[in-house]
Write a structure and sequence with these properties.
By secondary structure, this protein is an alpha/beta fold. It contains ten helices and six strands; from the N terminus they run βαααααβαβαβαβαβα. Strand 5, helix 9 and strand 6 form a beta-alpha-beta unit.
Length: 236
């Protein structure tokens, strides 16, 4: 049997970026009248696309959200990325091991091409993921719809049953399951440290077959799971 295609979420799985993004999003939402504690922010918006975030803000305020929201958030975000962004501990060793074992992998990120591109450059990973970094901008519907997962698999020439998704957000796990893919819940990002147990439970309810607290565990799960394990597709 061939090795599975590993589809990684990016923020919080490859880049330890969610701790930055959520903090800046929290401030930007508060500036527009929506104040949320961090645990509620994680529950509502972890892994969500910018369009779904602005739609929720518009519903809360009863007023349209203009482009300046995105530009202010991105300006704050990218400034901190360039100064602070780090990879999730263990991810480089995991990618090296997958390369060594001939296991293909790619990114399926709920963020925009622009945000993903800046972060990849900051981590010096743009070359490594050239041609295999996909974002919400590539499909009509972002996570939790299955479109992005199916798009990524197709671009890598694989069927859904050949794929294992590594995700830290329920939206991503739902997308994977809806696409007929297996999913590992990853709770090793800095942003989940205070709520790792609760998030693991939420990811399990969304349909993960295992949980990883660090990328040493991710490696064991990925390299020890047989490919083509039957998965029932979950309809939209």
């Amino acid at each position: 049997m061939s090795a599975p295609l590993v589809i990684f979420d990016f923020d919080g799985v490859i880049a330890d970026s969610e701790i930055i993004a959520l903090a800046e999003l929290q401030d930007c939402l508060a500036d527009h009248g929506l104040t949320l504690p961090m645990d509620s922010l994680i529950d509502r918006f972890l892994g969500a696309s910018l369009s779904s975030i602005t739609a929720a803000l518009a519903e809360h305020t009863g007023a349209p959200v203009h482009d300046d929201f995105r530009e202010v958030w991105y300006a704050r975000l990218f400034d901190r990325y360039r100064r602070e962004l780090q990879p999730v501990p263990g991810i480089m060793a995991l990618l090296d091991r997958l390369d060594c074992d001939g296991v293909d992998y790619c990114i399926a990120s709920g963020s925009s091409d622009r945000r993903l591109g800046v972060a990849l450059e900051c981590l010096d990973l743009a070359g490594r993921f050239h041609g295999r970094a996909f974002s919400a901008d590539d499909v009509a519907r972002g996570k939790p719809a299955p479109d992005l997962m199916l798009f990524a698999a197709a671009r890598r020439g694989r069927t859904p049953g050949d794929c294992i998704v590594v995700e830290d957000a329920t939206a991503g796990v739902t997308a994977a399951r809806s696409a007929g893919m297996r999913a590992i819940g990853f709770v090793g990002g800095t942003h989940l440290a205070p709520v790792a147990k609760r998030q693991a439970e939420r990811l399990a309810r969304a349909g993960t077959f295992a949980t990883s607290a660090n990328h040493a565990q991710t490696a064991e799960l990925l390299l020890g799971v047989p490919s083509r394990r039957p998965v029932d597709r979950v309809e939209d």
